[in-house]
Amino acid sequence: MMKITRIEKQNEAYFLPFxxxxxxxxxxxxxxxxxxxxxxxxxxxxxxxxxxxxxEMLSVYVLPEYRRKGFGTEMMDALSGxxxxxxxxxxxxxLKFDVEIMAFLRIVGFxxxxxxxxxxxxxxxxxxxxxxxxxxxxxxxxxxxxxxxATAGERKMIHHYLAARNLPxxxxxxxxxxxxxxxxxxxxxxxxxxxxxxxxxxxxWQSFEDADPKEGMDHLVTIVNLLDRSAEYDGxxxxxxxxxxxxxxxxFSYFTxxxxxTRREGIYMRGVRLL
Length: 275
Known about the structure:
By secondary structure, the protein is of the alpha+beta class. The chain has helices at 71-85, 99-107, 123-127, 130-139, 152-163, 215-229, 248-256, and strands at residues 2-6, 30-37, 42-50, 55-62, 90-96, 111-122, 144-146, 179-183, 187-197, 200-207, 238-242, 263-274. It has two domains: 2-88, Aminopeptidase (3-Layer(aba) Sandwich), CATH 3.40.630; 118-267, 3-Layer(aba) Sandwich (Aminopeptidase).
């Protein structure tokens, strides 16, 4: 017999080896569960992030010797049950291409509809670039700030802006490193949402549809400077981005002057399970 247990601070040490790096630190919206046998043997764990509008799977893992016994399916069903009770209609997932895990997720009801190549550039390389130093002087703007620094009126405006585009308005991105450009409290000119990784930040989403094309440079300069001033990261930290982005690959190549500084991290897949 196997039971599903909630992973909390007092018991997380038993499950950390089974969890993805993004699920090892407790944070708002993080839901973690473990699979434990009657004798106390931990056989697996799963994690997801949930907010009022969505649930995203972070990881699911079962020890090889206990696979194909239904443990993974039970954990997935438990997480999906929480989403259903919250009125959420689907669970999304994004993962590095892996034939075995994708086969399992298809069995439990996921459909994969999109793939992309994830790339990264070390922040230190950008900071040492004379072109970046020049851009930092030219494009620094008091109108571009971290979302965490938005006024109450600006937060309300940003909330409406994101909701109109079916994006999360509170969770799922890092407010300390996500940035926006606005004119007063009436008009958003651009937003860049960033997602935390263990060794850096990933560009999650950008919109400059109402802005001058140079805003992309302004946002990148602001984000790199925020990371440079942060005690969390050093010059070895990375900025992650999709190779399919329109602006970012060109900007990084411009700053570094050499495409060899861009590392290809692998192919990632996105999928969804309807509840």
